[in-house]
Design a protein that fits this description.
Layout lengths: L1 H6 L4 H24 L3 E4 L2 E4 L1 H9 L3 H5 L3 H9 L4 E5 L2 E5 L8 H16 L11 H20 L8
Antiparallel strand pairs: 1-2, 3-4
Helix pairs in contact: 2-7, 3-6, 5-7
């Protein structure tokens, strides 16, 4: 699938399917993290602690754990999703630091993929930059699926 995304045009339906699968798995991660106590409560609001999970469960040798799928982590770390910011009263996309190569940065970038989608930054009825959106979704899915398949989260059936 990765080669197909890189070498050919991707349809809106294919990106929709990637986004659905990504959201579903991301939600399963967040459920597991909260269930296992990887969260903070700030003024009664739950904040999932991805850094704590990344450090305690996945660890510093995350690239070795990913094996051949480490190319997905390398892509996300090298080409992280941009962040929406306000400059001169305009919402604009800002490049994000790609100099950090650690497990916290990896999960931070995957979280931004989710945030950009969920908060409407990448989709208003049509996909913005569909090829890049598809690459970020697919690479994020590969990383999350790999760690899930290694038992780093448990999914209730």
């Amino acid at each position: 699938m990765m080669e197909e995304i890189i070498e050919s045009e991707i349809t809106s339906t294919e990106i929709d399917n990637l986004a659905f699968n990504f959201f579903k798995l991301f939600a399963q991660y967040e459920y597991f993290l909260k269930k296992q106590g990887f969260f903070q409560s700030i003024r009664g609001k739950i904040i999932v602690d991805w850094d704590c999970y990344a450090n305690k469960i996945v660890g510093k040798n995350f690239m070795d754990l990913l094996g051949e799928d480490k190319i997905s982590a390398e892509y996300i770390l090298r080409e992280p999703p941009k962040s929406q910011v306000v400059e001169n009263e305009m919402i604009v996309w800002k490049s994000v630091n790609n100099e950090e190569v650690n497990v916290q940065a990896l999960f931070g970038h995957i979280g931004r993929v989710r945030n950009n989608l969920f908060h409407g930054g990448k989709f208003n009825g049509t996909w913005f930059d569909p090829k890049r959106s598809a690459l970020l979704l697919k690479h994020s899915l590969i990383v999350l699926e790999r760690f899930r398949d290694m038992g780093m989260i448990e999914i209730d059936n």
